[in-house]
Amino acid sequence: MSPSRKAKPAAGRVRVEGSVLDELGFSPQHALELKVKAAIHQGIMAIIARQRYSARDLEKIFDVPQPRVSELTRGKLSTMSVGKLVWYADRLRATVTVKVSRAAS
Predict the structure, then answer these.
(1) For the chain, first and last CA: distance in Å?
(2) Model pTM?
(3) How far is it, in rounded angstroms, from Cα 33 to Cα 43?
(4) What is the dihedral of CA 9, 16, 6, 17, to 10 degrees?
(5) Where are the domains of the chain?
(6) 14 or 98: whose pLDDT is higher?
């Protein structure tokens, strides 16, 4: 377990502090990709909710069939690349900002 993560037992349970993805045994690269996808997806879903877009609206905006819209709205991120999510955000007239900085030691 990394130094920034601590598991604390409490009444037969394990409490994990930090990222669940790290605990699930994903490689650091895969965990990072999932975190990026989740952040972009969360932003897309906030825009969809705020604008009250229907599935039919999204089919037209994204120019994709209904099953792809369903995968997006249901959060099936394994079927989408980071690039596809950025494209969806762009079609919603949103921007995706990536910040690169050195992590604290």
Answers:
(1) 16
(2) 0.75
(3) 16
(4) -140
(5) 17-91
(6) 98
User: Which amino acid is it at 48?
Assistant: I
In the block, tokens 């877009």 appear at 53
Name the residue with higher pLDDT: 63 or 99: 63
User: What's the full length of the chain, in residues?
Assistant: 105
CATH number of 17-91: 1.10.260.40
Rounded CA separation 78/47 (Å) = 21
Helix %, strand %, coil % for the chain, to 5?
Answer: 55, 10, 35
Give 102 or 19, the one with higher predicted confidence.
Answer: 102
Contact 88, 62 (CB under 8 A): yes
Cα 37 to Cα 101: distance, rounded to the nearest angstrom: 19
Contact status, residue 8 vs residue 14, Cβ threshold 8 Å: yes
Residue at 42: amino acid letter: Q
Average pLDDT, the chain: 86
